[in-house]
Specification:
heterodimer, A: about 220 residues, B: Alkaline Phosphatase, subunit A, 8-stranded mixed beta sheet, 39 helices, 10 strands, elongated, endoplasmic reticulum (chain A), Phosphatidylinositol glycan anchor biosynthesis, class F (chain A), transmembrane helix (chain A), transmembrane (chain A), GPI_biosynthesis_protein_Pig-F (chain A)
Chain lengths: ~220, ~950
Amino acid sequence: MWDREIRAMVSTHAIMAASVFMATVVPAVFLPGFSVYGTHLSWLYSVSAAVTGVSVAVFWLLGIAQPTKKHSLGYKLSRLCRCCVYFFLSCIFFHFVVLLYGAPLVESALETFSLAVLLTSLTTLRCLCVLGPNVQAWIRVFSRHGAMSVWDTCLQITVACTLVGAWVGAFPIPLDWDRPWQVWPVSCSLGAVIGFLTGLVAAPAWIHHHRKHLTYKSK
Amino acid sequence: MKVRTSVFATLILMSEVIGIALFLRGFFPVPIKSSLASKNSLSDLPAEPLSGSSPNTTRLPHPLFKRVVIMLVDALRDDFLFGPNGGTFMPYTRHVVERSSSYSFVAKARPPTVTMPRIKALTTGSIPGFIDVVMNLNSPALLEDNLIWQAKTAEKRIIFYGDDTWVRLFPKHFMEYDGTTSFFVSDYTEVDNNVTRHLDSTLKRDDWDILILHYLGLDHIGHISGPYSSLIQPKLMEMDDVLKKIHGALISKEAEGSLPYLLVLCGDHGMSETGSHGGSSEPEVNTPLVLISPAFKRKVGMEKPGVIEQVDLAPTLALGLGLPISQNSVGRVIPGVFQESSLRDQLRFLHLNGHQLNCLLKDSMPSYEKEAGFEQYRVAEKAHGNWMKLYFEGNTSEVLSNMGKKVLKQYLEALAALSSALSKQLGKYDMYSMIAGMVFVFQLLMILLLAMPEALSADAAVDLPVASALLSLPFYLLCLLLASVHVLVCTSATSSCYYCTLSWGLVFVVVAFSSAMFCILISMAVRRLSLGLKYNGKSPLKTNVSEWSLSELDVLLLAGTVGHTLSLAASSFIEEEHQTWYFLLNTLCLAMFQDVCRKYFREKSTSKDEEDCLLPSKDCWNSALPQPDASSEKWLALATPIFTLVCCRLLRSINQTGVQWAHLPDVGHWLNSSEHRTVLSLLTVFCLVLTYLLVQRRCSWVSKVALAFGLVGVYSYRAAVGNVIFPWQHSSRTMSKGTVEARFVYVFVLGILFSGTKDLLRSQIITADAKLKSRGLWEIYSGLVLLASLLFRAHNLPVLCCCLLIQTLISQFIWKKLHYDAAQITIMHYWFGQAFFYFQGNSNNIATIDISVGFVGLESYVEAPAIFLTALSTYAGPLLWTCHLVCYLSSERHRSPVSVGHGCYCLALLRSVPAAVYIVLVTVLRYHLFIWSVFSPKLLYESMHLLLTAGVCLFFITMEQSPRKS
């Protein structure tokens, strides 16, 4: 069972990494003048969209999300709505946090919000896919010793990696090198994406390495 | 010897202060200054020596040149002109150098090879020291005696075009000027066109005597693309054309009978192989110097240019123009320039130069008689007098000229000796003192680190093996070794060294102390190692590792401290250090938020879900407290980090500091503008009231009253100074210095401090009453707050207010509830203190220090209180937070009594790690381009902070009761 889950995870992650890669390469081929630095916001949106689409599709297909007892259409719709609301709230939350970190309040609000959207689609969306719109479950997963399945651990690792990546990405901003990637929010979003990719690689590897020590209470 | 942790930490910090002081003394050599404050003038020139009869004329010989054009090309390297490519780079200049009447030299610039000090060196003839630049950051004008000032006093008309550093250095000196800023390094054409565009009209005119041109383009090209870029050649060709134009104009203007012109082409510094400058490598130091004048002998063919010092230009130009040599000049005249004048004049020039150098030597060196140059100069002067006697007797024989040549040679030797003796003291790092200080500091740091397990134990006492170290053989051997190293270094040192000038007794004390430290260090390390081995031998390594599980907060605190220390290696991170601290503080608050969330939400879920409580969660142990006000407390606790974050975000916009974003508009400027005085007044009132409410809770009623009066006094002081509106004083708008009001506040500050100290003493000596003690502590703290509110500028009062508010909220709802240990709380206090240092508007630049604070309540400048007040207001943020730390740790009832000691130890460690690492970084980067502008001010800030922390640690000692008593 372990091997199967890890294999599923590896393939999922490979698909997601590939989607990030494609989101960078494909528009560059079709759209003239598309580049990561130059048209940073469109790159950002394309990565967000790709990751969103792919993770929704993959997790839906895999059926990792908790098996719902009721299958009525109304329930599903309300779940979907709540997911959308949570997604939006999370965007606002990230925007707020980035503002607190010192992003300009008015000047580059669009850039800041785009970064928030990217962070949301890299972190919150996965939570939504795996755990559903269930705040209690989120708090459980993100507290100490709270993981109850391999996917929970994986979620912890990728989210942490993404956030740490974005955090580290802010370091080069004060340097006076005048490079294109020091412009707000290029370094942060690059950091987030790189952190995300690292998380995608690290999570299965870590779980595989620690599979002897990992014990989950339920299931 | 067992000492308490706080005593141990304080001792270490104080010794570190001494070590850093030694380092600083070596890093900033004291500049040579003539003790006379005045400037040299024509009247106090020495008489021409003449043995026998009364002294001869005191006037200068006739000037040699009528007009001087100085063409300074920034970053002109010697091989651009004299190298193999010189012919293609600057064909005309090369032709003039080879065939025309000119002298060419390689002028050696002294490091730091940066433009501003180089301009100072060229005009004053002195070598500006590092401390000089740091000290002069506030007064950009050059106050020393200099060539430009002398020329202006002699009513020469000076025109300047080029780098606006000159305009700032010599305000009102130029008859006409146009400064170009060197702000945009990427621009290398416009800066030079702005200079050249004036040239045609100026050269046609006759109403000037000195023309100075400073071209920046070449330097900018160097910074962009290095000395081998394709942009270099066109730029040098352009410079060549400019020189050709000037030379042509000067030749055409030259009239028969009048004095000739002088055209000087020079560079201020060179350019390294990568195109930057600031260091001391050969290509950075070597600059060409070409003097062109019809007064010189016409040359045939290229000669190898002689090597001179850059400072030699100043005395040469001064004498050539008939001006006195500026007082602090260490240069000597370039002998070739005067070769065509009469022997009498030549001797007179050399005599003047020698006299000036001699005076400077007498002023700056206590043991000047021992210098070889002094004696040589005396001999030469005597011989000069004899020669003059013969000369006046009408002797014109071969003997006279031979004798004159001998005197000339004697003079030149004397000048060389004098000049080298003087410049030896200047512009060099005193590496021996620096290394001694550094080794000292590192020994202390290692001891501090090795003592960590003991210092943070429940005992809070450190066992220092002093006796065994002092009685051991290695100690004596080490003493001997260090003493012999000292003798060896001091006897063989070529440059002067501060550590060597110390008296023997002092040096011996230092040597003994250092070797004792080393022995203690070794024995502690051995002890720790053997303990560790034993421990590891007993238990397998695995359990050892799992014990060391750190929470996210610990990881953050460690990573932040280490990361900040490492970031000091980059100049941008020093300039923008406030960003680092804001960033870390934000992350800290978020981590706290996460901790709070985890605590409260986990608890809720554990009480709801029985299943979950089986988890071996750390937080589970104190879950059973369902109190009625638990829910409001929960929300307050949850809101506190968010509130803190919002506060910090708002405070950040009050003062924009740093370099890159300092120009952005901030709230502080908005408040200080005259239209918004009402807003500022309301804000001030609000902040003062809030301060009162926050501080008064823990004071006795006497202090409460005093505090209220004091805060009213603060407002009236601000009103008197004119920052805020006083509601009952509409008509008379008399601006005073507010001395009375400020003194009124001082009285209350002293009163509160006195009452606090009284309470403390009573609690220590008479009754061991914990309540009284904590009240005394908080009273002292509120006295400090009152003083800070007086010293802070009006728009900074929100910073103080928020500081108090955050302290209250966090200590109430987070630190108390989440059971952080003393070390964590100390680190958080330190981070908050650092961030508030920058919230106040400070930066790592000397220019942001508010010196006006030194005059609050004083009629005139008095040094000691001014320095004290300035230091206090600059470091108010860190000081308030550390004081809060002392008060908080010692007044918390449920904390163990050793927590004060732990806090003190952590504070010492937090302060000494960056300081120790920074001095190493500064030593490594001492030839960095920004060493003066960025690294040196930061070094001063760091050492000042260390000093203040050592002071606060004394406070800790008095607070730490020994664990046995309680």
